[in-house]
Amino acid sequence: MSMIRYAAAGLLAACSFAAGAQTVGRVTDPVEWVNPLMGTASKPELSNGNTYPAIAVPWGMNFWTPQTGKMGNGWAYTYDADKIRGFKQTHQPSPWMNDYGQFAVMPVTGSKRFTQEARASWFSHKAEVAKPYYYSVYLADADVTTEIAPTERAAQFRFTFPKSDASYVVVDAFDKGSYVKILPGQRRVIGYSTRHARGPLPKNFRNYFVIEFDQPFTSTDTWQGEALQEGRLETEGAHSGALLGFTTAKGQKVHMRVASSFIGFEQAELNLRRELGQDDFDATRAKGKALWNGVLGKLAVEGGSVDQTRTFYSSLYRMVLFPNKMYEIDAFGKPVHWSPYNGEVLPGRLFAGTGFWDTFRALYPFLNLVYPSINREMQEGLANAFKEGGWLPEWSSPGYANVMIGNNSASVVADAWIKGVRGQDIETLWQALKHGADNEGPMQAVGRAGVKYYNELGYVPYDVGINENAARTLEYAYDDFTIYQLGKALGKPAAEIDIYAQRSMNYRKLFDQESGLMRGKNRDGSFQSPFNPFKWGDAFTEGNSWHYSWSVFHDVAGLAELMGGRKAFVDKLDTVFTLPPIFDESYYKAVIHEIREMQIANMGQYAHGNQPIQHMTYLYNYAGAPWKAQYWIRETMDRMYAPTPDGYCGDEDNGQTSAWYVFSALGFYPVTPGVNQYVIGTPLFPKASVQLENGRSITLRARGAGRYIDALRIDGKTAERNWVGHGELMQGATLDFSMSTRPNTGRGIRAQDAPYSFSRDEKP
């Protein structure tokens, strides 16, 4: 029985059968519950996740993935594809962002086939094994099995060839400028790729790679584009590659070791020796598995179904990939990085590959709770980015990317410090937040587009040529709140920080009493007209007014007051689900995939497949109807997620959509990053535990059937409130939920049971 079959047997052994329902007991090998193919059945017109199988270690610098798409296609791997074109080193955060520094390898047999079409091979998922720490697939046309085991900056490959005197491995350094050199005496290939999808990047951007084999070459060729350069050992140009020949017996294994560096060949060599050392393929695989179990094993769930358990750990896997390390360890054991901001090699850490518009909501709060040490490194990286580029990145891929809106680095920095992450250069980060909040950047997605209008009028006007203006205003107001909270935590004087408290109330300026929703406003103070609350884009970002009107994370009580009080607020929340999924796509001139995903979900105007509305279900807790939050949260978990190739209901953006699920499955959610509270939802598993880095643990028990909370006890004391404090959890806490199939309409209904709201609790 193979190792993989043993893993499957162990999975089944962890399950028990009760009353005809299969439930999972204590999980001891969490990585084996991960399905890296979850979300891969996607396309530009419809996202079921827009993921690819990332064969990597948590937060590693380099990932590997089988490449089914054509070179340069952001959809590198799609589940319905028939052929694999190569095995790509990737740093891609999403198909929409595409990749940078990529190159690929591919085994072939029979003839010297090296272009992406000629070398492509049919494959089947029946002959594919995808684990976070291990990938294997049978390539039918070549009659070769390829296996991969990764480390942070290196990997081992094992190719099992047929009997042939014409066995080859193709090295493809990709187009847009690349270089390869074969060193036959060392059984090596070195090279670099310069391809990147987002910019601008410094002209010296290169991903240097070093590849070594355990077998001598029987032939050595290079190629440019579609032209083979027989016998040539070195080539540089638009699209460089190498073709390495072997004579193989049936079942012969050719081992390949590879590492890369953004700094240079010498550092790539150092990465290879340090991370692979004398390990064979199986040792690297075993170390990778242990590393994954150490990270995933911080969370343990039991008593759920097989699908719930697989969805939970598959989502957690997505949450610990990005942002990924862009730093390396030099010969003296010190962190060092090539800077995408100024092109220099500098000391210290750096991370890349995340968009704060998505991840400020739940991914970073999760790191602050469960993995604060890695976020401490990320915060150091943000300080370095500011020192090197003059701005905090809102989307790093790997440098500044002009994508999405907002100034949500403020939330990411503030929430970390407020929740106890320490060790970063917080004064530099404080200056970075103020600089980003008070200035327009070199592009719209850096700093604040429209900041002069925002600071003068309290909003970004609809009619001054700045797109998505209402969404920008709402996010700037929340970001100002987080800057104010961080300033208070740092003891900054009122004269410096009170302006941010005042601006955090700017959301009120866009509230339209007539519709009861947020609406674009012109420079002269009149509302934009005509107003269609179902119109996507325009004043909003990848959504409409029904989605963005809830983006007052810091002052839900104030928003409820604008909407007519708590009952009217609850009625408005209900309406999101009872409205038909109609839409106006005229701004985009096409039905974008986010619209289609809302339309087909059969949840009215609730568009969980995109980020702006994901917190909305929790807002019932602020208005005395927590049982309605419990209904819709569980409904979303049950209907919108599954551990399958079509298992997400939209983009899985850098871990955010997964973070919603993992937090929600535990039973609470960070509606307001920058505040030391989590809003209570409804726990999915009968038992869950979280091992904290401080040595303490959180235990969550849900007794009884159903999705509704009948009673809650926190550390043995009855809690009517609809929130739990971060400090309580960090001390080690036990939350006991008594669950019911019927809603308890008398629990958590008082005004004092509601979570934090700025205007109510601080009265700015």
Automatic annotation (TrEMBL):
The keyword Metal-binding is assigned to this record: no
Signal peptide as annotated in the record: 1-21
Gene Ontology terms describing biological process: carbohydrate metabolic process; glycoprotein catabolic process
InterPro entries given in the database record: 6-hairpin_glycosidase_sf (IPR008928), GH-type_carb-bd (IPR014718), GH92_a_mannosidase_put (IPR005887), GH92_N (IPR041371), Glyco_hydro_92 (IPR012939), PNGase (IPR050883)
Chain residue ranges for the region called Disordered: 741-764
Molecular-function GO terms, alphabetical: carbohydrate binding; peptide-N4-(N-acetyl-beta-glucosaminyl)asparagine amidase activity
Entry keyword set: Signal
PANTHER family attached to this UniProt entry: PEPTIDE N-GLYCANASE PNGASE -RELATED, PUTATIVE-RELATED
Protein name per Swiss-Prot or TrEMBL: Alpha-1,2-mannosidase, putative
